[in-house]
Design goal:
Elements: H1 3-10, E1 23-30, H2 49-53, H3 61-77, E2 81-86, H4 95-100, H5 103-112, E3 116-118, H6 127-137, E4 142-143, E5 147-148, E6 162-167, E7 170-178, H7 182-185, E8 193-194, H8 197-210, E9 215-221, H9 224-233, E10 239-241, E11 261-264, E12 270-274, E13 282-290, E14 296-301, E15 304-305, H10 314-332, E16 334-338, H11 346-349, H12 355-368, E17 375-379, E18 390-393, H13 394-400, E19 407-413, H14 414-425, E20 436-439, E21 441-445, E22 455-461, E23 467-469, E24 475-481, H15 482-485, H16 492-497, E25 499-502, H17 508-517, E26 531-533
Parallel strand pairs: 1-2, 2-3, 3-4, 7-9, 9-10, 10-12, 17-24, 21-26
Antiparallel strand pairs: 1-13, 5-8, 6-7, 11-12, 13-14, 13-15, 16-18, 17-20, 19-24, 19-25, 21-22, 22-23
Helix pairs in contact: 3-10, 10-13, 12-17, 13-17
Length: 534
Amino acid sequence: MTFRLMATTAALALFAGHAQAEYVLHVLHINDLHSRIEPINKYDSTCDAETRAAGECFGGIARLATAVNQLRDQIRAEGGNVIVLDAGDQYQGSLFYTTYKGTDTVEFMNAVGFDVMALGNHEFDDGPEGAAVLADGVEFPVISGNLDLSQSNVLKGKIGSHTVLDVGGEKIGIVSALAMDTPETASPGPNVIFQDDMDSLKSDVQELTEQGVTKIIALTHTGYLRDQEFAAQVPGLDAVIGGHSHTLLGDMEGAEGPYPTMITGADGRDVPVATAYAYSKYLGHLTLTFDDDGNLTSASGQPILLDNAIPEDETLAARITEMAAPIDELRQRVVAETSAAIDGDRANCRQRECEMGNLVADAMLDRVRAQGVQIAIQNGGGLRASIDAGPVTMGEIYTVLPFQNTLATFRLKGGDVVAALENGASQYEEGAGRFAQVAGLKYTVDPAAPAGSRISDVQVRGRDGTWSLIDADAEYGVASNDYMRQGGDGYRVFAERATDAYDFGPDLAEVLATYMQVQDGGYTPVIDGRITVK
């Protein structure tokens, strides 16, 4: 066992000396793995051979399996109680998902031995049929409490609203909720009906309480802000384990809050909220202590950094290498050079101008400028990684743009372009993926203003390179991706007001690779002030 894991659990072994009436539950959890089956680098992209050799990789399923197995085995050997949870979004984010479409997820989740998973929005990226691959294949419950699946012949009876685990002679209730905007961010289809997340959680907790379950955990995929609201407003909840917002909690640099974050609950008791960043970089470890009546008396823990100090499970590592072989040739092909790292950090691309946003939007606009297109708009949430300096491989390109979106072109009045930018800023405080990265445009966003009134000083670059204020009544050529053009991420104005729409252009990954290839002397990242944040 590595020193890191021993140090993490040594203090927690004290539960063995607690009074007999106390019950201690260890919750190991991840969220938003996003198909990072292989280890990742510091940019959250797949590690290359050089980075592996330097011992600078993090996470990956084989390393996660080692950490889970070591902790789970130690806790059980000491007479303790442990469960392993996943708060959603196993799908989408690497060539493993592009190639295997969830069958790899099933195999590896079963190998790790999860107890429960909450459905994430990206589990619907290939429709309800994609979610069914997961639900049909895994050996544990997949749940989501605010979904009415009675009309879905694909998912009916396959995804529960809640579940109860028997752990050490105690019943542990697990309830769940999925982000309400999933129909805008993924493709669940019309037969997956979303119900209010707060109401469904309250109802499920009440149902379990009436069945005599006194220890109830919400396993959600709604984001850190919404999780805190659940903790404050749902009576009977003992803890919230969440995903979706990729939030880092803990005492490390860059954390957005403490792990766990304690919230005063509906009955006046503190309720811990925990989440563990994303991409398999951390394993959350939350320890909950209950009295004999099932009341939570303490909560503690920290996420465990899954760095090179934790070895990879050899059996799983060999299987991953085997499955990677068919995609390695494509992934390793060098397509461009960059003079410096290109920042695609989630926190930046969803709230301000970012280098990756500028690159992708510029590439889109360059591809169709000859068709009279003046503006490109790319959702920040569609950018999934950074790229390090030096040679750029096709694998890195696909990690940045894994969704297989195509380039879409259409015409739109200036007033509707502004409305689209307002949609992009409408969930600014949540760091939502709809935030607009642009080319051929400049704009100012005021996060303190009410949603719908946050955008000002929108300018369009003319063919002669000069900038002028956008004309609300004039018509402009616009490029985006097919997902946004069809109304994804709240861009209904594209679906409802666009004319001359064509959604079937080249794959965005190919557009980006081609654009980077033709840059003289290699690509140089740029921030040029096209987005101003007040």
